[in-house]
Amino acid sequence: MKKAIFLAVILCLFVSLPAVEKIIRLGEHPFYRTNNLTPDDLKKIADKKAGEVKMGFEAAGYGELIFAFLEQIQKADIAETQIVPGDQFLWMLFKRGRQIEVKNDVMWAGKKNVPAYTFTIMREGKAYEFVIPKICANISLKSVKDLPTPVCSLKLSAEMVEVGQPVKIDVCETQNALKNTVTITDAAGAAYKVLELAGEQCSAEVTFDKAGSYTVTNLAEGAYGTKSANPCQVALKVLEFNNPPQCKLNVSKAKLPKGAKLVLDASESSDPDGQVVAATFEVKDSSGQVVETQTLTQPPFIYKLKTRTIGEYSVNLSVKDNGVLGGKSSACAGNNFTVSKNAFWVVDIGLATMKDPTRFLFLRAGYQHRFSEAFRLNALAGVFINLSDNSYGTPFVIDLIATNYFSKFFLGGGIGLWVVENDTKLDLIAELGYEIFSTKSVSGALFLEGRVGTGDFDVIDDMGRLGLGLRLTF
């Protein structure tokens, strides 16, 4: 059984092998008789004997190649070669009398080399190598090879740009090509621009002066007229130019105490051909470190920043519009601001009088908390030393006074406990003052202060107290 299978396989292989016809003589049946065949003769043969050539190609089964052969041989690069013993051909065309005949699968089996001409014909991505012996001009097809087909590539730096904004066209990844032809057409199909890119010049920038929809196509061309077949087409949209927004930032204060809120106002930012859709505030400390970032996407783009740490800060603003391609942004900076401490020591010293007449030297000390640079709350305790020669005594006071500054002027009001023998009471206090100096470590203000007991309004002329003092804040 195994022997039968082996013999069957051998038989199949033998039957499937093509029979090669050996040729030992050339010139007995020439296609064109001549003593000295030249390249020009080959071109004349193709021209004058086109009909016979056509018959031979059709007999060989290559009728579709005849027109490419007749056309290209006129410009073909014809070179001299040698047919050496053992060279094989797919077919050889010759003439027996007036009859055109073709032999398939032939091999030169002569003892000597035969001088010949060789050239290549290209058609539909294939290279056909022809060899024609000088002695007989028998047209012979030696080989058929697939040409490397160009594979085109097309990349755009962006598929949506503005008028006047360049877009880079890149075909550098195209393979097996001698050149690339890039065609840009508008929505109507009219050519807007044609570029030829090859070698190292495989990219270019194009700027459009008109908005619209465009199509960019690349056709890669290789050797012998081969062209790319894979699609290389990209849609490009060119939009009207978008002007950037105009950025403006207002910072409410140049100095404020820790814990107070600073108003960062971008509401005056605008866009000449659209609207602002986002504002990003960035706060940096004196070392340049970003300490806070906030983005607002709804007008009026006002951010209230709560100060947390003493120091000097800067603010930058970036506003973005609703233009094409995600919009454009503009940046600007606001005034720097300083966050100061919000807790201070306070000392008051001054003179006061009451109608009796009683005169006092008052001394108070305590704590001041600043909710803002304008509004301050003072908690004080001290004594009103009686300077008069009477028996009224020396009152002890505990006062809570709120002041609000208007630039350097301030108004104040509060309550105080007036403790003295036979006249302890709860006072209402009013102040009017003016800051006379301020340094980094201390500030001073002159103030007028009036106070009266809550039960003494009917005898305010007698029991009211009026004083002039100096308030030092550390």
Description:
With 474 residues, this protein is mostly beta strands. It has four domains: 17-146, no CATH class; 155-239, Immunoglobulin-like (Sandwich); 250-340, Immunoglobulins (Immunoglobulin-like); 343-473, Porin (Beta Barrel). The protein is 10% helix and 51% strand. The protein is built from five helices and 32 strands. The chain has helices spanning 2-16, 39-48, 50-60, 66-72, 460-463; strands at residues 21-23, 79-83, 88-96, 99-108, 114-123, 126-133, 140-146, 155-156, 160-162, 167-170, 179-186, 191-197, 203-206, 212-221, 233-239, 250-251, 255-257, 261-265, 276-285, 290-296, 302-306, 311-321, 329-333, 337-340, 343-354, 358-370, 375-386, 396-406, 409-419, 425-438, 443-453, 465-473. An eight-stranded antiparallel beta barrel has the order 25-26-27-28-29-30-31-32. Strand 3 (88-96) and strand 4 form a beta hairpin. The radius of gyration is 52 Å and the shape is rod-shaped. The chain starts with a helix and ends with a strand.
Structure keywords:
Immunoglobulin-like, 5 helices, eight-stranded antiparallel beta barrel, about 475 residues, mainly beta
